[in-house]
């Protein structure tokens, strides 16, 4: 975790490159590049316009759609785990299964050539389980960071209403995280508002980034049962610096190759400025436990909308040049580029939460392989 964050602090802040930009600049770019997507869709052998599903921003969903997504998430939190109880005693629900899979593979899916494709398949698999096991009929929403970067606590995602993914944690006396450079926020304690106020976190911690730290897990690997509340420390300190429209637009327009794009996104870039990538900034805007834990972050319900936006931004970057930005991979096979180079033929296996084992080359397009979705324009 420390290694990841040391790299994260090298990522560029794009404001100096772009100055002030329109709040709609990213959506405008998406609309302009849609013909490229249409051309890609026309070539697909598995996805057609009549099957195409559309993912939308949380704030644009109807009340009914928000409640349907929330109900499906609460449903899988009640479904029994499919994992071996002797190996993973802390995994008691299907939701916990997703957390274990992420914990298991953390060191090979961050700062690697599989980061983007692995998380695309992972997020899609979460959506699939919501549909197949809990009757959800919608798509995976995303969190448009830039739309709410000035004050994420007031966004429909975190306002604590019954159509949110719950609010901030209770205000407690706590210290700033030594890993991010951000001061202590206005929360730090247990989440007491919204649909997930009674959520029980069982797995981890493994690499906590909150002070005071949560109780230690009875097992060193974090797979033991360690029941506790969901904690958050949401603030605008990072979002107002690294998740603005100009930051997202700069990431897309200034990344001429995949290595640059994914490294800056994750916080491993560095073009003459300090800062943090949008991936880390999003996670640490939520912060708390487990949101700020590198291994167990999917245990916070907001994880999925954050990675929905990660996938949306990558998709938009791909749309800028479909011919050269889709069937490619870059990076190593262990964290921060170490290990052998990743291959398009390497396998992505999500175990009990996956649909099947796919090659990376099957997961590079949102309209090929198992996928058939796009983002609203």
In short:
This protein has 377 residues and is mostly helical. It has helices at residues 2-8, 15-18, 25-43, 63-76, 94-105, 115-134, 239-242, 245-254, 258-266, 278-286, 303-319, 322-325; strands spanning 53-55, 169-171, 188-191, 200-201, 228-229, 332-334, 338-341, 347-348, 358-359, 373-375.
Describe this structure in words.
The chain is mainly alpha-helical. It is built from twelve helices and ten strands. The strands form five sheets. It has a two-stranded parallel ribbon with strand order 1-10. A hairpin with a 3-residue loop joins strand 6 (332-334) and strand 7. Helix 4 crosses helix 6 (115-134) and helix 10 (278-286) packs antiparallel against helix 11 (303-319). The chain is globular. The chain starts with a helix and ends with a strand.
Give, in spatial order, the strands making up the sheet with the most strands: 1-10
* Unreliable runs: 1-19, 269-273
Tell me the number of helical segments per DSSP (H or I, 4 or more residues long): 12
Rg from alpha-carbon coordinates: 19 Å
Task: Label the structural class.
Answer: mainly alpha
**Topology as a string of helices (H) and strands (E):** HHHEHHHEEEEHHHHHHEEEEE
Mean pLDDT: 92
Strand fraction: 5-15%
The biggest beta sheet is recorded as: 2 strands, parallel
> What is the percent of helical residues?
25-40%
**Termini Cα gap:** 36 Å
Extended strand count: 10
Shape: globular
């Amino acid at each position: 975790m420390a290694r990841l964050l040391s790299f994260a602090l090298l990522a560029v802040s794009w404001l100096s490159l772009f100055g002030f930009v329109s709040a709609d600049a990213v959506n405008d770019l998406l609309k302009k590049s849609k013909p490229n997507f249409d051309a890609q869709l026309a070539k697909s052998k598995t996805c057609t316009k009549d099957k195409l599903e559309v993912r939308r921003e949380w704030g644009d969903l109807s009340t009914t759609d928000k409640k349907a997504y929330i109900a499906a998430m609460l449903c899988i939190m009640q479904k029994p785990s499919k994992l071996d109880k002797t190996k993973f005693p802390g995994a008691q629900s299907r939701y916990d299964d997703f957390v274990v899979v992420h914990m298991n593979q953390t060191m090979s899916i961050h700062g690697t050539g599989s980061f983007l494709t692995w998380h695309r398949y992972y997020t899609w698999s979460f959506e699939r389980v919501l549909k197949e096991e809990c009757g959800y009929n919608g798509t995976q929403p995303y969190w448009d960071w830039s739309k709410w970067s000035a004050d994420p606590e007031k966004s429909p995602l975190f306002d604590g209403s019954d159509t949110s993914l719950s609010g901030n944690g209770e205000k407690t006396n706590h210290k700033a995280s030594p890993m991010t450079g951000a001061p202590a926020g206005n929360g730090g304690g247990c989440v007491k508002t919204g649909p997930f106020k009674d959520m029980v976190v069982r797995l981890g911690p493994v690499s906590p980034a909150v002070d005071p730290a949560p109780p230690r897990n009875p097992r060193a690997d974090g797979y033991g049962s360690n029941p506790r509340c969901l904690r958050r420390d949401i603030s605008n300190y990072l979002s107002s610096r690294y998740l603005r429209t100009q930051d997202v637009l700069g990431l897309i327009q200034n990344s001429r190759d995949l290595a640059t794009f994914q490294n800056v996104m994750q916080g491993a870039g560095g073009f003459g400025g300090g800062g943090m990538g949008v991936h880390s900034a999003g996670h640490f805007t939520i912060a708390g436990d487990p949101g700020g834990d590198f291994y167990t972050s999917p245990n916070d319900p907001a994880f999925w909308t954050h990675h929905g936006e990660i996938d949306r931004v990558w998709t938009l970057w791909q749309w800028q040049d479909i011919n050269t930005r889709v069937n490619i991979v870059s990076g190593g096979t262990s964290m921060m580029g170490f290990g052998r180079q990743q291959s398009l033929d390497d396998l992505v296996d999500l175990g009990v939460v996956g649909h099947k084992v796919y090659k990376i080359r099957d997961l590079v397009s949102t309209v090929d392989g198992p996928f058939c979705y796009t983002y609203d324009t």
